[in-house]
Amino acid sequence: MSSNVYVEVQMLIRKPIEDVFEAFINPEVTTNFWFTKSTGKLEEGKTVTWEWEMYGVKNVVNVHQINPNQLIKTEWGEPSVNVDYEFKTMENGTLVVIKSYGFTQTGEDLLRQVNDNTGGFTTVLDGCKAYLEHGINLRLIEDKFPSK
């Protein structure tokens, strides 16, 4: 049974929606601010594996829906959760909203998962903004847990 708890983070990225959307579906771009390796581009109905080589961690990502320049609906993690990426054109760029939901944990485990998702997706958006707007890979994911 999943809870109705969800995580939502957002960031304005001062680039056209096509560029921002591409950054999330194309691992050639995404690897500059998030995971280090992917088995392929996100496509509706496909499954890819994302890898964070510095931590020895992999996640299988099921892509449920893609509406170009609007929405990416995925399911991934262990235990799996739904993660939606929404894109909206704004006056100064593109608003990206990441929503994570469908948590099965309870109590302290649920709080830990919500905290990890909030911090993790905020870091992803910060890194994406730095990379797309300024061409800088801040190595945020790599440096988030330097002792691992």
TrEMBL record:
Gene3D superfamilies (UniProt xref): 3.30.530.20
The family this protein is said to belong to: Belongs to the AHA1 family.
Organismal lineage: Bacteria, Pseudomonadati, Bacteroidota, Flavobacteriia, Flavobacteriales
Highest taxon listed in the record's lineage: Bacteria
Name used for this protein in its record: Activator of Hsp90 ATPase homolog 1-like protein
Record-linked InterPro entries: ASHA1/2-like_C, START-like_dom_sf
Domain Activator of Hsp90 ATPase homologue 1/2-like C-terminal: 16-133
CDD domains in alphabetical order: SRPBCC_CalC_Aha1-like_8
